[in-house]
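Justification of computing resources. Each target in the renewal requires a structure prediction run like the one illustrated here; the chain below, 64 residues long, is used simply to show the kind of job we budget for.
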Amino acid sequence: MWPFTKRCRFPGVKENRNGTIEFTLTDEEALRADCALDNLAGLSFHPEAADRIRNGTIAVALSN
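Resulting structure tokens:
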């Protein structure tokens, strides 16, 4: 028997039946993400890397 029977749930995260997720940020989380992105204002990135840099920057800001 697997010892972990309870699924982990996170606030603001909704799992859809098709396996995708939807999430909402709190006001504080949104502010932190916006501030992190403001630090990148005026910089140029290769178009193929721009989304990854944006998502990574937000992820780091939220993890801090």
